[in-house]
Amino acid sequence: MTEIAGEYRFGPECGRLVLKTTRAGLAAKAGHDLTLEVTRWSAHAAVPGEDQGGLASATLSAEADLGSLTTREGTGGAMPLTQKDRDEIDSTARRILAGRGNATATFSSSQVSVLPDGGEIEGTITINDIAQPLRLRLTEQEPGHYQGTGTIVQSAHGIKPYSAFLGTLKLQDEVKLEFEADLTRARPVQE
């Protein structure tokens, strides 16, 4: 991985944060696998120089406004998503995620591991004031441009996965988190 020492602040202007859901239940064919984008989020990365540990000593923190979720795609299902469907999904997702009054998710890293094909960031994600460990798998697409994935278990954060039709259509408890960030476009933190 390319070494980019410095401190950076970034968000939607140079990255993307999405949640991907999958469906389950007897009526799963009627529903959609969803891609929901968080449109308001910010992150801070600090990457020390090689003489201070480099990427292995990096830290990452992020905050996401889950009230900004927007449906970007719905695959599968008996019929394509309409704009009305998208609006209803957005409203339902926001209501479910803000169930305890706090629609903000935060992440704070505790360890970064550099691997031959990328790296891993271990840390804590807090949703609904409930903190849980989260491991993010990171790859570098080109110098300074990173993509990552992780898995969030809704019930571990006090979120009951959405269900309809008496539970015959529901979302899987596990939600895939995907992000990308282009640090070459991020705002350096001035010292």
Question: What's this, in brief?
Answer:
The chain is mainly β and 191 residues long. It is 8% helix and 53% strand. The protein starts with 5 loop residues before the first strand and ends with a strand.
Q: Which properties best describe this structure?
A:
single chain, mainly beta, three-stranded antiparallel sheet, 1 helix, twelve-stranded antiparallel sheet, Lipocalin, 53% strand, 191 residues
Taking strands numbered 1, 2, ... along the chain, how are they ordered across the largest sheet? 7-4-2-14-11-10-9-8-6-5-1-15
CATH class descriptor:
Mainly Beta
Our measurement of the CA-to-CA distance between the termini, rounded to an integer number of angstroms, reads 25 Å
Order of secondary-structure elements: EEEEEEEHEEEEEEEE
Assigned CATH superfamily: Lipid/polyisoprenoid-binding, YceI-like
Q: How many individual β-strands? A: 15
State the CATH topology. Lipocalin
The rough form would be described as elongated
Instruction: Please name the CATH architecture.
Output: Beta Barrel
